[in-house]
Amino acid sequence: MTGTLRFRLTAWYSLALATVLLVFGALLYAVVHHHLLHHHDEPLRASAYTILKIIDETDDCHVLTDRQIEQLGKVGKLALIHESQGERQVFFDSPELSGSPLEPVLTELPLKHPTTLQFEALERDGAFWRVLSLPYQVRSGRRGVIRVVEDMGDIKETLKALRMGLLILAPIGVFASSLGGYWLAGKALAPVERITDLAQEIEASSLHRRLPHPGKDSEIGRLVETLNRMFGRLDASFESMKRFTADASHELRTPLATMRNAIDITLKRHHTPEEHEATLKTLGIEVDRLNGIVEDLLLLARADSGRLVVNMEPVRLDQILAAQVEAFWEQAEASGIDLQVRSTEAVTIIGNERWLHLMIGNLLGNALKFTPSRGEIIARVGIADGEANLTISDSGPGIPPGDLEKVFDRFFRSDPARSNARLPGTGLGLAIAAWISSIHGAEILAANRPEGGAVFTVRFGHRPS
After folding, report:
1. Could you say which DSSP state residue 109 is in?
2. How wide is the angle at C-alpha 26 spanned by C-alphas 25 and 32, nearest 5°?
3. What order do you get walking across the sheet with 454-460 strand by strand?
4. What contacts 322, CB < 8 A, 6 or more positions away?
């Protein structure tokens, strides 16, 4: 429980609140203490200077006149004037101080600064007094001290009550706020708990399921949308993987079955050397087909893993096309197909020559497979709107509109009746061509010609060098 997000949020909230209350309580106590201690200072200061003005009317304050005594009695504060040297003779004290235990204490109270005004707090018999001490020197040279005193009241009990209130109310406030924060965190995280429970129920066999949207454009709503998109991608990937596995198994099973059948027939009866040679040729063809399928699968697997390093450099696209057309020339001529290349200008792009050869070869091989005898295949390269384009068109039966988006899927096969079956394939050639176009930042498209046949276009997304 202590490791849950709900607990951690509550703990951090409580810690932050406790820190704030601690700082606030300390500042409040300091402000109140300062106010209670110093709020008498200004009246005491005014009274002290009034007394200093009164005693300064004569050369010496050793003997005060009746008028000075009357004026000192009207000051309104407890006052004591005494000599600061020798026996500290008292010149004047308020009637309230005369004979009280506080008088000798004030008389003997030391001066921390002999020439400057000073304040201090004094506690006697449970009472708190604020004492102002003002040193003076009359014209005769006699030095003395004016003491003005004010009762601060029950400051100790006031501060004690404030401390107790803070020490009791602050923990209660933190505890109550923690309970409220824990409840609010649970309420806020409840949708996340429900989403977690539902997500745990979704397995590989049920990736088609989706989490219910809360119907609000909030953090939870965006989380649900993100998870649902992720489940959609996983579902598509699993379905693609299952189709890929099934198609790969089918493609591998066909040549293996052919080889098994040829071997069984050979073992059942005696054959002539010519029959053995024919059987071995059949096995060789099927082995080559298996080898091609495995190589194509390994290439796609390495491409999917991202471990395939492709180096790019300036290459002549028109020369690569011409070389591939020349490589397929004899095959096309033997099938009665007119294979033409129409490139009137040099086209240079940034690419990888090896993979561009493979892409163009796969596109030409696909066109040869679906073009009937006496048909034609036209290959072009050129520049349109500042971008290099490669097109390969044929005069075959074309592609059903519903298959145009699928022809680049792995192991996709269109209607077998559309193929002249001269060139067996694995269903991976166009998928590899699509991958090669993607690593070159190009877009590959399949479409049908108005006059019949299919056309494949590769649009490179950068200007040629």
Report:
1. P
2. 85
3. 338-342, 376-384, 387-394, 454-460, 442-448
4. 341, 343
Structure tokens of 187? 């309420």
Greater pLDDT, 379 or 33: 379
Quote the tokens at residue 193. 């708990």
> pLDDT at position 87, please?
66
Model confidence pLDDT, tens digit, residues 404-447: 888 888 767 665 544 444 445 566 788 888 888 988 889 999 99
Q: Give dist(CA 295, CA 300) in Å, integer.
A: 9
Structure-derived torsion over alpha carbons of residues 277, 282, 288, 289, reported in degrees to the nearest 10: 180
Q: Are 17 and 177 in contact (CB under 8 A)?
A: yes
Asked if 40 contacts 150 with a C-beta cutoff of 8 angstroms, the reply is: yes
- 3-state SS class at 157: helix
The pTM score is 0.49
- Cβ(55)–Cβ(68) below 8 Å: yes
Please give the backbone phi and psi of residue 349, each rounded to the nearest 5 degrees, phi first.
-130, 170
Across the range 390-400, mean pLDDT stands at 91
Which segment of 5-14, 32-41, 211-220, 393-402 scores lowest on mean pLDDT? 211-220
pLDDT at 425: 57
DSSP, collapsed to helix, strand or coil, labels residue 182 as: helix
The answer to whether 443 touches 456, Cβ cutoff 8 Å, is no
CB-count burial class (<10 Å; 0-12, 13-18, 19+) for 368: buried
pLDDT tens string 123-165: 877 778 888 888 888 777 778 888 888 888 777 888 888 889 8
Question: For residue 156, which amino acid is it?
Answer: K
Query: Which residues are CB-neighbours of 237 under 8 A, at least 6 positions away?
Result: none
Relative to beta strand 338-342, strand 442-448 is unpaired
Largest CA distance in the chain: 159
Task: Give the C-alpha separation, 154 to 228, whole Å.
Answer: 69
